[in-house]
Amino acid sequence: DDEESGAIKANDGNSSNPQVLDAIESQRAEADGLRGMERFFNTRYIDIMQKIKYPVIVLFIALAGLGIFFAMQLEPPADAEDFLPPHHMATKVSSLTSPNND
After folding, report:
1. Which residues have a Cβ under 8 Å from the Cβ of 12 and sit 6 or more positions away?
2. Which residue did the predictor score with more confidence, 98 or 85?
3. What is the C-alpha separation between 48 and 56, in angstroms, rounded?
């Protein structure tokens, strides 16, 4: 029984083992009672992801590496940001109340 379940887990859809094929057929028959979205994720999505799992992993690792590379290129700003223009009321008030009135 453990060998059969291990064989089912290790199946990539190309097996000719009758026990594995029977288990797959029974799983697909069980999926017939599911709703459309559940049937899609239980059959087609899993089959597709089993076939492309390694390219997807490589793609995500490459994207993470690219993100890390660009994050390392970031630098803090050299000067303070001027959020308000010089003629704004809040800028004039802060210049009047600052200790360095020029």
Report:
1. 50, 51
2. 85
3. 11
Q: What is the CA radius of gyration of the chain?
A: 31
User: Which residue did the predictor score with more confidence, 3 or 100?
Assistant: 100
- Paired tokens of 81: 């940001």
**pLDDT tens string 22-56:** 777 777 766 667 788 888 887 888 888 889 999 99
Contact, 22 vs 34, CB < 8 A? no
Q: What is the dihedral of CA 26, 28, 34, 40, to 10 degrees?
A: 160
CA geometry: angle at 55 spanning 52 and 58, to 5°? 150
Decide if 12 contacts 49 (C-beta within 8 A).
no
Note whether 47 and 41 are within 8 A (CB): no
**Cα separation, 96 vs 16, whole angstroms:** 85
Q: Nearest-CA neighbor of 11 among 26, 29, 23, 28? A: 23
